[in-house]
Amino acid sequence: MLIGTATTVEEAIANEKSGMDLVVVQGSEAGGHRGTFLGAFEDTMIGTISLIPQVVDQVNIPVIAAGGIMDGRGVLSALVLGAEAIQMATAFVTSSESGVNTYHKDAILNSTEDLPVITSVFSGKPARGIHNEFIKKLSTYEKELPKYPTQNSLTQDIRREAAKQGRPEWMSLWCGQNPRSSNQQSAGEMILEIVEEVNGVMRKKW
């Protein structure tokens, strides 16, 4: 089975035409690297709620919703809009099973919706992460920096050493736009809560 990614309707259609079995539709709220492959990422910053139904109406392959979904409310809204599955990332970064650095987890748990920004200073490829000193200092030179994977290689040692020294201001703190909904719990507990929330909302509405 082949799964592609898309940040626009056009990219989703391209996925279907190229033979993908499913497509992950990434809204602009998503943390980490952007999946844009047609055009500039600045032109593909479409929110999940707006993007999902438009893609569903234009492709015949199953759509997986991604971007800013952190709880049962988000899951249910994406399903109602036509998605057949959900992809969640930031929600699980702070889970007890997550292998990310403790400083990364703490940064997300103490972040707000206005702090995650799009930057390419860490890897040379646009990605959403929590604004910190590294991003601030290099943002002026962003357009002059090498593209991925060169920039990613150049900053690798800096990021690794920053993690060792407990200096999150020099780390790539990937995070979506809904950090306030992050929790410290096991992945299993989180999934059970999401299922219960979806079922609870459906019972109230129907």
Can you put this structure into words, describing what you see?
By secondary structure, this protein is α/β, with parallel strands linked by helices. The protein has two domains: 3-88, Aldolase class I (TIM Barrel); 102-170, no CATH class. Helices cover 39% and strands 13% of the residues. It has a four-stranded parallel beta sheet with strand order 1-2-4-5, with helices on one face. 39% of the residues are buried. The model has no long low-confidence stretch (mean pLDDT 96).
Attribute tags:
TIM Barrel; alpha/beta; 206 residues; 2 domains; three-stranded antiparallel sheet; globular; four-stranded parallel sheet; 39% helix
What's the topology here?
Layout: E1 3-6, H1 9-17, E2 22-26, E3 32-33, H2 48-56, E4 63-66, H3 72-80, E5 85-87, H4 90-93, H5 102-109, E6 116-119, E7 127-130, H6 133-138, H7 150-165, H8 187-205
Parallel strand pairs: 1-2, 2-4, 4-5
Antiparallel strand pairs: 3-7, 6-7
Helix pairs in contact: 3-8
CATH superfamily of the largest domain: Aldolase class I
> How would you characterize the largest beta sheet?
4 strands, parallel
Number of helices: 8
Mean pLDDT over the full residue set: 96
In helices, the fraction of residues equals: 25-40%
Shape: globular
Classification by helices and strands: alpha/beta
In terms of DSSP E residues, the strand content is 5-15%
